[in-house]
Amino acid sequence: MTVVHRSALKEKEEQLRSFKDRVAQNVVLSLKTENTENMNSPVNQSRLTEMYQQLRVCTWPNIHFSSSDSQARDLVQNAFVEATKHVKVLRTSIRKLFDFRTSPKVEKFTQTALENLQLGLFHSSRQDVFKAAFPQYQAAPEDLLLASECFWLGCLMALNSPPLHPDWANLSLLTLLSEMADTETYIIAIDFGTTYSGYAYSLTPRNKDVSPHVRRWGQEQGHDTPKTPSCILLDQHGTFKYFGYEAKGKYLEMHKDEAKNYYYFENFKMELYDKTITKDLEIKDVNKKSMSALRVFSAALQFLKKDALKTIFINTDGMKFKVTDFTWVLTVPAIWDNSARQFMREAAEQAGIVTSENKLVIALEPEAASIWSMKLPSSGFITDGHDRVALQRSPGTQYIVVDCGGGTIDITVHEVLEGGALKELNKASGNNRGGWTVDRKFRQALRELFCDGLWEEYERDHPSEAQKFMYNFETVKLAENAARMICYSNLGRLVHERQNEDREVFNVVEGMSWDSGTILISRQRMETFFHESLVHITDSLCEILRKHPDISYILLVGGFAQSTILRKIVQKEFSDCAKVLCPKNPQEVILRGAVMFGRDPSVIRSRKSAFTYGVAKSGIFDPSVHKEEKRLTTKEGVWCQDLFSKLVGIGDDVEWNQTKEYIFCPLERDWKSMKLSFYRTERKNVTYVDEWGVDGPVASCVVDMPDISKGMNRVKLEVFFGATEIKAKATDLKSKNTATVKMDFISKQ
Asked: Which residues of 467-504 are buried (b: 16+ CB within 10 A; e: fewer)?
């Protein structure tokens, strides 16, 4: 069966117009005949399933095939396959009609055209549809009827959202599988930040460039931002109430006595930084009340999940999507420990985001920012007084990505490879000196400015006002000029009361003063608040530039990079070494890049291993080398146990799809199972798994080996290090029994 393609775009336009005309006529006909069929959705998934069963159970048994059963089977399969190909051509033509800069509105119009096409096909003659696609096809009447029915229904199924396909491995049942077609990739990326969080999504076909849609927040509160504050409000029973701007607003409106009955968490992502993560980890809210960390994080992710599906529903004119229709991407700092990454995956699973491990991708925040920034033209970057430039995409270009977040500073180094892929040149580094450090320094200065604990009294007695004041500072610190911060009434009242009592109210603080209800901050004083964070950033950049002298660019991204002071100081310190760039929307680049990473994780071609990983094994005992206490005697010989068998070294390059294989043997020939235990260290070389600096076991697995005839070399271990998470599989070479290793980095205690 050969598909006859129409090549002229004009013909496609005429075809779409004719479909719309037919649909309009059929609507009128439906009304005249009092047909109560729902014209809004006559071909939904349930209806298509019914039609398929009708075709299989009622139509096919009444057709007397001129061909054999196997030929009939091939005819049916070819009809459905060609229908999918035909629809792919039509989809491409329709999308060409709307080939403008993608926006939710244009995506909506495109989907409407596809729905009209499906409706037109539904109300057309089966054989007319088939003959229009295959005018040269000749066959016996019975075969033509079968081919027409299958092709017509196959087109309707392929136009469904998501497309439906028969299961050819089980043609007798012909079960309809609701799967995404090869031509579609639906992605939702969540950037769960310390200070702000948000998401972006894409319904773009796989064969077109990704154009992510970023959800805007806060319009009801007078804002319009790509992220919303990472604040969550739960009631006294721990039931979710609000997230983001709503949570912040509701909590700040509460009287302090009412607020104590609620759980209000902010900046809680930092609870996972540089800490031992346990299954029962608890975190404290602003009122020092504790709750399960997993419960808090999963509640926040569940809100973002539901909001994303709701937003997509609204922006696609009511198209209904399920969680499982999407590949979900969750961003984490590159410097986060593996246990924190695993914790976020488990929180996502508890939030109902994924049930399959393959449907959730962990993206590293500076990598996501790097991917999107590579696409930006020179006009997409802030000039800050220098000529407009963009990141060079030519192979060999090297640059540093500094992700300046609210909580962490995350730094990585990339080199552009042939084809535009990226290679990590330096192990990710950074610290917890993000934007919140500036806030902390400002709060310390306020305590110095006011005498005798006045500021502490204000925070204690009027927490909502004090928090509002600090939220205002979030905007003030982004500017480079001297600042004037208007204080709220209760702070002014406390000052007035103490002044009436002839008590000392203010200390002399350089660069800060009180002026009739306003706090004045000089530019020089404001810069001191940035000092701690900037020292760590500049020290890290100096170290990297010493190791990699061919760096051409320093890319500043993340919400904290919106600060003019931060950008100008980095520019001043390093402009002689590299061009300093910052996207115009530094908060959005991680979101948009995470969508692209979800589409193609191989864009990061190789990474540096953050640790030396190894597995415990035993080797032939050598008294001149091994410790006596490690000697173990079996009937197979004398062994040295607890040896650290290196799998990959710290700082080693690991390709994204690279699999390393190792062969292990049991200590005794008749063993029917083998346990493999995995360890890690920041040291380059170690001998034993119980040496200082070695963590573990961080994971383990048991491989069944029922056939003892194989001998000693019996277990193959495959380790996948190149992705953002480590995976492994062990296989018994004789029985082919396998065990998947789940790298459990979360402590049990």
From this structure: bebeeebbeebbeeeebebebbeebeebbeebeeeeee
Domain 609-742: assigned CATH number: 2.60.34
Domain 377-582 has CATH 3.40.309.10: no
Helix (H) or strand (E) holding 399: strand 398-404
On whether the 187-362 domain is CATH 3.30.420.40, my answer is yes
Query: What mean pLDDT do residues 74-79 have?
Result: 77
Which pTM was predicted?
0.71
The helix/strand/coil state of 277 is coil
Q: Got the DSSP string for 54-65? A: HIIIIIGGG---
3-state SS string for 416-485: ECHHHCEEEEEEEEEECCCHHHHHHHHHHHHHHHECCCHHHHHHHHCHHHHHHHHHHHHHHCCCCCCEEE
* Residue length of the chain: 749
Q: Which two tokens stand for residue 593?
A: 């890049």
Which run of H or E residues covers position 192? strand 187-192
Intervals of CATH 2.60.34 along the chain? 609-742
Q: pLDDT of 30-54, one tens digit each? A: 323 333 333 345 677 767 776 776 6
What is the token pair recorded at 224?
A: 């319009």
User: Is 23's pLDDT higher than 50?
Assistant: no
564 vs 318, which has greater pLDDT?
564
Alpha helices in 98-140 (DSSP H): 104-122, 126-133
Question: Exposure pattern of 274-312 as b/e (b: 16+ CB <10 Å)?
Answer: eeebeeebebebbeebebebbbbbbbbbbbbbebbbebb
Helix/strand/coil for 390: coil
How far apart CA 441 and CA 126 sit, in angstroms, is 73
Domain with CATH 3.30.420.40 in the chain: 187-362, 377-582
CA distances 459 to 469, 545, 748, Å, are: 10, 43, 37
* DSSP helix/strand/coil, 217: strand
CA distances from residue 398 to 249, 293, 384, 541 in whole angstroms, order as listed: 44, 39, 22, 14
Q: Name the token pair of 728.
A: 């492994």
**Residues near 710 by beta carbon (within 8 Å), at least 6 away in sequence:** 732, 733, 734
